[in-house]
What we know:
The protein is 36% helix and 36% strand. The protein is α+β, with helices and mostly antiparallel strands and 138 residues long.
Amino acid sequence: xxxxxxxxxxxxxxxxxxxxxxxxxxxxxxxxxxxxxxxxxxxxxxxxxxxxxxxxxxxxxxxxxxxxxxxxxxxxxxxxxxxxxxxxxxxxxxxxxxxxxxxxxxxxxxxxxxxxxxxxxxxxxxxxxxxxxxxxxx
Length: 138
């Protein structure tokens, strides 16, 4: 008596078909590409934001420096500001005014063009309105 068993492979066999594996790999790769694009755009945005914040800080430092400059006394000039060079040129906007003969000051309004450079390359430029003054000696 030959009692050999015959095993048939039917549709109820365990495991994945080649088509299911390919579809899952395509889905995983699409999700991976979307995640990479998102991360890449965030990294480039962070770089641009850092550059912008650096320029904003330079403008703040330039404004703080220009508070010390009296444009009526020194219309043009340049100075070192750490590794940067700051240059300014003031132009009279409103004429000099003396309130009365009893006033100790003569004042004028100046538009000052400020340029900040690093190694002869312009980093930022801006204009600022300043009051220039001169103390009269009585």
